Amino acid sequence: MKIKKFAFLIVYTVLIFFIFYIFDALLLISGIVKSTEPYQKTKYSGKYFLNNPAFITKYYPGVSMPDDSEPVDYLTMTPEESVVRGFVLGGSTAQGYPDATNNSFAKITERILNYGDKQSIEILNLSFSGLNSFYVNDAMKKILKYKPNFIIIYAGHNEIFGTFGAASGGNIFQKKLYMSLYEINSVRWLFDLINTSENNKDLSLMNIQFAGKIFENDSKKNDVVKNNFYTNISETIALCKKNNIRVFIFDPVSNLIDMPPFKTDYPDSFIIEETQNIRDIQKLIQIKDNDMIPFRARSYISKEIEKIAKNNDNVVYIPLFDILYSKFGVSGFGQQLFIDHLHFNYTGNHEAAIVLAQSLSALYNFDFNKDLLYEKNSRMIMNYSPVCEVIASRKIRNMIENPPYSDMTVKYNKDILFDYENKIPLDLNERIKNIETEEEIHNIVLAYLKEIGRIDLLVDYLKMLNSIHLSSPDSYILLSDYYSYSGDMETAEMYLTKGYLLSAERQKIIKSIQEYQKKYNPAFFNKYVKN
Q: How far apart are CA 235 and CA 256, in angstroms?
């Protein structure tokens, strides 16, 4: 009798787990919950993967995130044998904000190292605004399946006010438990129901994270931040070491001169004098560390990074602060390289890119064109337009109208941001100065370049748009038209093929493919599909 009861209990338990497993699987299959994988297969080819817009939802608990974000990368599950693959993990600086992600320092590095005919390296950007070492630690586990040779970590600024940061409450165990439970579909469904909110739709992520809090510079609080960061990054590096993955880790830097503290106990006059006149780097660092709304990493983060790097032989440490200081002096920590408190302008991204390119080249024996160490040449191969800097500066101008910027003890000098407007022709600036949407600005620029007869610049601008807006069909079609008219059929077909795989408006691309087949090569796309 006891055996029968025991057998019944086992069968009953297995049945309950089986029903739960089926229910859990159906939630994902039906689309009620979204996958937490960083990439998803493209609709029209099983070979390529695109960014999964639902991936980051996990890392913003309590915040409604858009689920229609544009892809920034595409990749195959396993890289070709000749390709060295890496991923960038970090916050908004690594992401490239306020510029496009594909204008970030990592993508500049990729373009520098791949310049010419050979493909040698791909760097995929999985960095997002407000994310910190908790994200780096968790995301690393997910990218192992994509066979990276290396990862790049640029983190540290969001350890206090970032998602899962010290100011959000809870301990390291609770935060990691949440991330583990979120991987269960039924639990994720419940979390998503609880977290769904419309209250935050008009606020920036910075506003939401800040929410009127302060975080004094005292040893007890700092120890929590320091220990969490050390644990998360050390675990990430250990996982990389186990899987023979090299780690490149940056010392994060920030604007010390043109960015007064958000809130401080220092008298106003002292702040102004120190940040705008004094060139004692240690005093500037001290002022930054005493900011009670610390969106910039405090100095102990840099010390922890250096300590971690020394203790791990699979880590390449990039002391960015020391490198910039030796090259630019104190002026390297102001508007020359930064567009706000911690985000780079193009010059800053370029400087970080060449340091990373040199570090990667030293490890993997890459031989790249040293002329690309000059900013004007990296702008050229990126097809980078100063219009992008205008768009980026406008994002910052809009952000500083809200807390914590609007409540700063000493107001941020937003006149600095208007300097970027002077980099474009006056008549073009007049046309776009009151235009709000990025898409409309780009259309005006294209029309302007066509109007003045600068087809060369128009083609460069289309190439730039093609690299930063992978799902937009227009650049694929226009570039294909240009190259087919010029007689370069191989390039024309490449743009149509890429557009078919990546564009969000497939029918528009198909129509262009059919027109191309009628005019030039009836077999081109049929041949591609068979392959």
A: 31
Asked if the bond preceding 98 is cis, omega within 30° of 0, the reply is yes
pLDDT of 280 reads: 84
Phi and psi at 245, nearest 5°, equal -115, 130
DSSP state of 344: B
Q: Which amino acid is at 121?
A: I
Distance, CA of 426 to CA of 163 (rounded, Å) = 41
Structure confidence by residue, pLDDT tens digits, 126-138: 999 999 999 999 9
Torsion region of 152: left, alpha or beta (phi above 0 gives left; psi -120 to 50 gives alpha): beta
pTM metric for this prediction = 0.91
Q: How many CB atoms lie within 10 A of CB 47?
A: 12
Q: What is the per-residue pLDDT for 118? A: 64
What gap in Å lies between CA 205 and CA 387, rounded to an integer? 25
Q: For each of the domains in the chain, give its residue range(s) and CATH number, in order of start.
A: 39-259+299-384 (3.40.50.1110), 471-531 (no CATH)
The segments of the chain whose pLDDT lies below 70 read 1-2, 4-9, 11-18, 20-21, 23-31, 44-46, 62-68, 116-119, 195-212, 266-279, 526-531
| pLDDT for residue 381 | 94
Q: Where are the alpha helices (DSSP H) in 243-385?
A: 268-276, 281-289, 299-310, 320-328, 346-364, 375-381
Whether 150 and 3 have beta carbons less than 8 Å apart is answered as no
Give me 457's structure tokens.
């610049």
Q: 528 to each of 118, 497, 504, 522, how far by Cα in Å?
A: 22, 8, 20, 12
pLDDT at 199: 47
Tell me how far apart the alpha carbons of residues 125 and 105 are, in angstroms, rounded to a whole number: 10
User: How is residue 338 annotated by DSSP?
Assistant: B
- Answer for the pair 80, 109: CB distance below 8 angstroms, yes or no: no
Residue 382's closest CA among 130, 66, 101, 47? 101
Are the C-beta atoms of residues 56 and 34 closer than 8 Å to each other? no
Residue whose entry in the numeric block shows the structure tokens 């290396």: 150
pLDDT for the residue 513: 92
DSSP H helices in 452-488:
455-468, 473-486
Q: Are strands 74-76 and 45-51 parallel, antiparallel or unpaired?
A: antiparallel
Q: What's 145's DSSP letter?
A: G
Q: How do beta strands 315-318 and 246-250 pair?
A: parallel
Single-letter amino acid, residue 241: K
Contact 516, 496 (CB under 8 A): yes
Contact 316, 359 (CB under 8 A): yes
pLDDT at 324: 98
Cα separation values, 106 from 59, 238, 320, Å? 22, 23, 14
